[in-house]
Design goal:
Blueprint lengths: L1 E7 L4 H9 L8 E7 L12 H5 L3 E10 L4 H12 L7 E7 L17
Antiparallel strand pairs: 1-3, 1-4, 2-3
Helix pairs in contact: 1-3
């Protein structure tokens, strides 16, 4: 099992989520509104780092738990539909997930997702 975490621009959420609905085998996604900053945010000589920290950039965080076989397709879908070509398009992270448990039934592993 894998966990995919993607940070995208808020205006791309509808396009990304519609594209993800088309992926067979995807069991669901979680979406959160988040704010943050990345490298290169303070390019203006008149803006201090302290001032920049008060001006976090809004993004959307998408979390997906999936089977290993879906990872490449899901990442491609997110990458292509979230892309604008502008700085700050976002990031996608992929990590191994050791266990999952469905609270209702007690199922574990891939059966729980």
């Amino acid at each position: 099992m894998k966990k995919i975490v993607a940070y995208i621009k808020p205006h791309k959420l509808s396009k990304v989520s519609l594209a993800l609905h088309g992926v067979e085998g995807l069991t669901g996604i979680s979406v959160m509104d988040v704010r943050g900053f990345g490298r290169g945010q303070v390019d203006d000589a008149h803006t201090s780092k302290t001032e920049a920290l008060l001006d976090f950039i809004p993004h959307v965080k998408i979390e997906i738990i999936c089977r290993d076989t879906l990872v490449d397709e899901l990442v491609t879908v997110i990458e292509t539909t979230a892309h604008t070509g502008l700085r700050g398009d976002g990031k996608i992270y992929i990590s191994d997930l050791h266990e999952a448990v469905r609270i209702q039934t007690g199922e574990r592993g891939e059966l729980a997702i």
